[in-house]
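User: Teach me something about this protein's shape.
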Amino acid sequence: MRSLLWAAAVCLLLAPGDTSDDEPPIDKEALRKAAHEMFMHGYNSYMKYAWPHDELMPLSCKGRIRGVTPSRGDVDDAMGNFSLTLVDTLDTLLVVGEYDEFEEAVKRVVENVRFDTDVVVSVFETNIRVVGGLIGGHMMALVLKSKFPSRLPWYDHQLLDMAKDVADRLLPAFNTTSGLPYSRINLKRGMLPYLKEQRDTCTACGGTMILEMSVISRLTGNPIYEEKARKAMDFLWERRHRGTDLMGTVLNVNSGDWVRRDSGIGAGIDSYYEYCLKAYILLGEDHFLDRFNTHYSAITRYVSKGYVFVDVHMHKPTVVSRGFMDALLAFWPGLLVLKGDLQPAIEMHEMLFQVVKRHKFLPEAFTHDLQVHWAQHPLRPEFIESTYLLYRATKDEHYLRVAKQVLDSLNENDVRSMSHEDRMDSFVLSETFKYLYLIFAENSDLIFDLDNYVLSTEAHFLPLNLASSQPDQLPRRLFIEPEHIEDEERSNRFQSACPNIPGGLSRSADALNAFGSSLRTRLPRRLFIEPEHIEDEERTNRFQSATRVQTNLGYIAKSTECAAGTNDRLRAWAFSASNTDHIKHLSKMGIEMEQHDGQVYLRYSEKAKDGDPSASCVLDAQGSLADLNASHSALSQMISLLLMIMLLWMVVMCSTFVLVTLAAIARRVLRARGSPAESQEKKNE
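Assistant: First, the predicted structure itself:
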């Protein structure tokens, strides 16, 4: 029955909204207009000050030109002097209803953009932004022509032809032993010798090609693009760790050996997981879903720590490889929506929203206790993408309020100092504002059906009618509403295809909304609850029910003891010895911290009631709380010192013995050499 799922792509039920009595109603129309106005301000600024260059420098009011403006390193590999922002933004123009400007933009791209340029670009970025942007523009051009026959009368698949041209220029990058593409290529001269020496690529770079390349193949009839992308996906699947089913971050394109074995859901891996599931949605092939489910189980087991996520070593998942999360993992709740697993999506989104509320926006990186790790924020779309998909699935007005807060904060960039940066990536217009507009838009505001498309990782529209076969048991739609289930037979098929939605359709939708509301209201409106916040027995019980949240975010309840002989354990991945808030909390609980021998020592200074000495706890690299008595620690240090002295004495004695032995041997050799001379002298006499 699982094969029925792909016909609908995603089995989600749109539920009635849940409006709280103490919240003012959301004016969706006003917010949609505000999102439209902000998008057009950014777009018009790009066209006025930057076009035909790739990006706008909003503070300098000029275009960013590859090879002319100061280099930003690998970030500039997304640019190829091909009007990147305009190409990436084509389909957004039609989404927001700017039909005249869309026609003009298509004409500008067709007449002015060329790809026969001697410039080295990222294969990954060029695929998702340029190939994807041209495909999305082509699909929207067909929509506009079908809706208004008088528009674009001259258009004859030129954008699709341009997408094919770019794909042809990327194909030489796939000529590797493994089939994984090299990370960079020269658009005019192909794989130059020095580019072939750069053999390392990220998992996401090789695993985020299948959607765009499959669409090119199926729209043009040439299978080569899909074949190359499939081979890369198949190889990555074979390179997973067979014991954990986790993926590393960087590997060699020829040998397939892992260069970086860090495993998580953020930068370097993120869109590989996304395309495993979306390839199933687009192409309807069960093995893509099998792969995603296998990875999902591994992520749930090793990477997910309640509401937060850690990076671990793929071969040793009990060892955490870094102590912060990056903003790119905010796509995960939205992906879980597409899978139909809404409860963990709601939970993780709420954690991310706590970060947004604290810092006005999602920092580029933040620690597990939700402090800023890297304050830069280039207006990334992942969080608002997940917010949009959760609203589509639940119709809970909470997500409209979240989107409103994001909209209100978009004029602020660096989330610590609230300063601005002279940078506007193409995804700001192609993704961020697209999702902001869509979440406030009604179906009547659009001239096409959103559910006939799946959005790529760059938010470009890819049609769902390209699957090899199309069974007619269920509507071919991304989201399925109750009215699409026309009879009992189809209703039963829908339920059997979606095991994550138990019970009746409307009942399960109500339960999801109730779960989200309960998650936000059952505790005081604080993510971190300290002992002084617990005022009575009732709230104490409520606090204890949230212990999972507290522990996972690295806070230690006052009741947590680390006396010798206890079995309590504290996971070290959430604790940062350089975090001043952590140290303050430890101090409030009477815990002193020391660092030496590569370890963090926590000492509880208050004497135990039975007169036992103070206890010391060591947080080791494996994330465990080791129990050490303070006297044991001093004794171990003394023993170590004695052992070092003994070792030094042995080295000195051995060295002396060797020197004496060598001297004796040398003396004998010299004496032996002198004997013949003395004999000859005596003979002469």
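Now, about its shape. The two ends are 116 Å apart (CA to CA). The chain has a mean pLDDT of 80. If you'd like, I can walk through any region in more detail.
User: That's plenty for now, thanks!
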